[in-house]
């Protein structure tokens, strides 16, 4: 489909006779906003109560904990992730890991991740401020 712009704006124009683009059908519901808030509350409790590595007491942000816990959950559940190398040769062996975003999780996956985070936190002695499941 050819796309062109009108009047300097970034508005896409469809050729005549073409209706709205079809949207893919979802088989499972996406993570809810309530689940998102619950997940972030768990991660804040962990970030506020433990440092990592455990011996150093180094303080980590909730975002760091989200990435780290998500990676561990993905590994334990054998969910695919991607290991990437730089686009250009920098002369050293650099690499990174691309994780799926938690915003892309389905409700059942988000619930499973939350259970994993709770179990991890309990093993580390975290006292969760509101350990109730979202309704």
Question: How are the elements arranged and paired?
Answer:
Layout: H1 33-49, H2 62-76, E1 82-84, E2 96-98, H3 107-123
Antiparallel strand pairs: 1-2
Helix pairs in contact: 1-2, 1-3
Give structural notes:
By secondary structure, the chain is mainly alpha-helical. The chain has a domain at 33-123: NinB (NinB fold, Orthogonal Bundle), CATH 1.10.3790. It is built from 3 helices and 2 strands. It has helices spanning 33-49, 62-76, 107-123; strands at residues 82-84, 96-98. A two-stranded antiparallel ribbon has the order 1-2. Helix 1 crosses helix 2 and helix 1 (33-49) packs parallel to helix 3. The longest helix is centred in the first third of the chain and has 17 residues, at 33-49. The protein is globular and about 50 Å long.
Short characterization:
The chain has helices at 33-49, 62-76, 107-123, and strands at 82-84, 96-98.
Q: Would you tell me the structural class of the helices and strands?
A: mainly alpha
Number of E-state strands: 2
Tell me the helix content: 25-40%
Assess the beta-strand content as a share of residues. under 5%
Shape: globular
Q: Any idea what the CATH architecture of the domain at 33-123 is?
A: Orthogonal Bundle
What is the CA-CA span between the terminal residues? 44 Å
- Report the CATH C-level class of the domain at 33-123: Mainly Alpha
Give the full name of the CATH homologous superfamily of the domain at 33-123: NinB
Question: What name is given to the CATH topology of the domain at 33-123?
Answer: NinB fold
* Main sheet overview: 2 strands, antiparallel
Mean pLDDT, all residues:
80
Order of helical and strand elements: HHEEH
Oligomer: single chain
Number of helices: 3
Query: Which value, in Å, is the CA radius of gyration?
Result: 21 Å
Residue stretches low in confidence (pLDDT < 50, at least 5 long) are 1-18
């Amino acid at each position: 489909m050819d796309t062109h712009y009108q009047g300097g704006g970034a508005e896409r124009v469809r050729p005549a006779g073409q209706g709205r683009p079809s949207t893919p059908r979802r088989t499972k519901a996406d993570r809810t906003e309530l689940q998102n808030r619950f997940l972030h509350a768990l991660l804040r409790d962990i970030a506020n109560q433990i440092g990592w590595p455990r011996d150093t007491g180094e303080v980590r942000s909730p975002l760091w904990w989200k990435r780290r816990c998500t990676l561990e959950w993905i590994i334990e559940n054998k969910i695919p992730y991607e290991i990437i190398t730089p686009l250009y040769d920098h002369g050293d062996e650099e690499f990174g890991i691309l994780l799926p975003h938690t915003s892309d999780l389905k409700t059942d996956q988000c619930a499973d991740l939350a259970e994993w985070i709770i179990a991890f936190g309990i093993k580390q002695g975290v006292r969760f401020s509101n350990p109730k499941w979202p309704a």
